[in-house]
Amino acid sequence: MCSETRVYPDAPRASRLRWSRLYGILAVMAGALTSIEAFGPAGSATMALRGGIALATFVAMALWIRGNRAAFDYADWCECAAEKITVRVIPSCRPEPERPPLEDEELERVVRGGHVAEPEREVVLT
Which of 21, 45, 98, 124 is in Cβ range 3.0-4.6 Å of 41 for a Cys bridge? Predict the structure, then answer.
């Protein structure tokens, strides 16, 4: 995007990719597959365990990618990207809720001396 390198001390830091977690997931799954081949039962149970471990591996990798999606997005940005990007903000069309009108006594309890105070609460003991 640009070739300038500026460092802002108060700029938010981009999240980093957690590669060690992905490697840990793959190591655990490879160990599980290896142990099934060496010590697992023979026949269709081995095939079911292989399929279950492979499915668990892909689910874990998908969750890792989902957890690191912001870091993947920030990896392609340069330092001056915030100056070059325009963000369009669309206001909501939702109407504000109407508040019921307060009577004079309630208004005096809520507003005291020009500042807003908490309304008094009654305590009922049984």
Answer: 45
